[in-house]
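It is worth pausing here to work through a concrete case rather than discussing structure prediction in the abstract. The textbook approach is simple: state the sequence, then state the predicted structure, then interpret. We follow exactly that order.
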Amino acid sequence: MFPLSAIIRACVVLRIHPNILTVTGVFINVLAAWALGLGAFVWGGVIMIAANIFDFIDGKVARELKWESEFGGFWDSVMDRFSDISLFIGLIYLYAEKGRTDYVIVTALAMMFSVMTSYTRARAESIITKCKVGFMERPERIVLFMIGAFTNRMAAVMWVLLVLSIVTVADRIYHTWRELNHSPKIEERLEHRLAEIRLAATPAKGRTTL
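Step two, the predicted structure:
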């Protein structure tokens, strides 16, 4: 898209560090959370779009400048959590001000399971190869927030987000359990592969060489 390409090129020319772009996105999301807390959902949605432009371009700027790093990926993930939680806190404030204890609880639970969605994958992938199962990841969560903001149906969106996040967390827990208990361990797979290599390297009985 032309506008995004132009923004990326400008950031590259100005040599703006990707981590600064990431932090800028977080601050803009905090403004979106403030708008949500005031009940200005449409404005909140518009500000979220602006915040996600920075979230989209930071990685591309890093690649263009050849400044990609493992810490950059870690930094981006941590800042994403701050952005997400800020939006939930804005809604919790709004519902608390309106005296809607029921939606305070629903939003708090949605926030908890959203954090657990990320945590279960991160923890699982420290002991198994991959755990990218389940539907409700960050892009889907942001899209739902925007739908809720622009349609003024944020309460219904919180219910959807909560249910899908619970399903995703449960799916990741089950997937990790299944991988650990029903898949060959890495050591076993390596030993089996080494045995195959040794067998292939051993000359067959009776084979003659010319």
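Step three, interpretation. Helices lie at 2-13, 18-37, 41-64, 70-97, 101-124, 138-151, 154-182, 186-201. The longest helix spans residues 154-182.
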